[in-house]
Fold this protein.
Amino acid sequence: MKALRGGEFTTKLTPVECAMKAQAAIVAEPEVVGVVEDSLVLMRKLEGNMFHTVLRANLLPDAEGTTIVLTAGADRIVFVFCLIFLAAFLLIDLFFLLAYSRVFQAYQFSDRDRSDWLFISLPFVSTALGVGLYQLGRYQCRGDKPFLTRVFVEATEAKSKAKAKVKTSPSAPPPRPRTESVADVQG
């Protein structure tokens, strides 16, 4: 799972107020479901496939209010489930390679099995199809992250930390106008 970085935001609300506003936004939006705690908000769209995008908002208390760290990606349990199946298929692939190359005396394919390419390639094709299915599911959910981020940011009235840093950074002094001296004008 590649967690899509949603960014860091700040708001003047406390973490509890952010959680309450997020809960209100989840209830008000018919397409969204979620779980809200004092320090964590999880949101996802109601309709979607099993690889749907989940928005995770960690609410951290700050001197000015709350710092919000947003990440989005596939649900963690789905990701772990996919990793377990990927590991199992990669292990089968390894056993097939060992049997095909006749590394072990007791575990090898016969000459007839070695000539059957459908039998030999099936675990490798299954592994590729599994990875492809995961990527297809994530591709179908590509529009969920901006939608969920917008719902959460609008509900909590959060501002992007990157934009806030640009606005508060000291700017360079304006260039001084060039003054011409009498010697420049005469010369």
